[in-house]
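Give me structure tokens for this 270-residue protein.
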Amino acid sequence: MIPDSAVSSNLRHHSPISTTETRQRHLKEYQERAMPKLFVKEKSKQGSKPSTIASKITSASTSRIEESAHSHYSTNESGASGDRIEQWYITNKAHLDPKTRRLLVLSKPTTVRQHGQLKVMRKHHWECKTQIERHLRNNLPTVFSLKIARDRIDWRKVAPYVAMMIQAAFRMDINHHLLPIIGSTLCALLEHKNLSALACEDLLVSWGLTELDARRFTSHLWEFMVAAVGEAPVWGGKGVGYRIRQSERTRDFKQLQHKLELLNNKATPI
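Here you go.
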């Protein structure tokens, strides 16, 4: 038989080991039971962060896509062809402000596309305008260099024809009350102030004509003045007398002539 002392000593010897193993086993079981809950909580906590980060990434990527699209659009619009830009002029009903000479469109742009088109159209218009002005300045008609004896021109006889030229160039109503005033003003500047051809063009542009229309008007007017003093024929030998005789038959000429005579009679000499 094993003595009780030996059993008790053996129990005392093995009890710490069994107790430690039991504690470790309980701890392991507790950890196994607690781990799923902790994992779920940790997963839920970590799950909220990716959603926030994902939303930030999505918004950032969206903004980058928009910026990329905008830059791509701007690049395409700036490199648009002349035919395409001319089509934009028609679509947007572009026109010039008669006072500021600035290109405007019928409706105010509200989208990025419309703003881009307007910017390209204004740049294109400015480049064309600059090129036209340079070409016109470097290619003056020969008639501009002629010295005209303006004191030999019968301005009372010529004024109605000049007024009809203004009416056609500015598309004015023949009964417009300012038409005789504009015609007599231009004739007075030509007669008394020795208005040059280039100064006449600038004056017409300030009144609302385009540079090309001002050149056509002034070229025709100078040829008309040269023919009026008998220094050169115009259009195949048909001088100013023929033109005025053709115009005198019209009702508009007679009406303007009458208004100009009334205006000249009321004028106060300086």
